[in-house]
Amino acid sequence: MKVWAISIGMAVGLISGFAWMKHRVNSPEQLIVGTWREKAWEYEKVNTPADRRRLTMEDTVSQAVKDQLGKHLMIHSAETWEFYPNGTLLLEGPHDVKNIRWKIKGRGHILELNHRNQTVEHYNITELTSDHLILNFDSDIQVKGIAKLTFQK
To answer: pTM of this prediction?
Structure first.
């Protein structure tokens, strides 16, 4: 009889603890909402030994390379990303504003962007806190490697 009571008490405690944590911990969908400013593009890895000698992790991606990547990605001209809770993302660049749809997939580690022209982009969410966002994308276009995009709220 005592074992049964202890088991029930432990189960109630675990359920209560889980409910409290779920209430107190922000989900990725909640954390990403807001205005994010692009701070840096950096290489995380390059594919060839010559590239490794030329580039280090501290090297930033030049505007010319961003423009080349931008032919295939919308983010090349966006300096500000504004995520809304309804799944809308406003990309504001120096010369234009784009309105697209966003959602977080997987276990909260994949950001999916759906453009009006049916283009879909996927980014790995490497870090997401209340004021810091790091996205990674793998590119086989000219720069060969994985680029890291860093944002600040």
So the answer is: 0.64
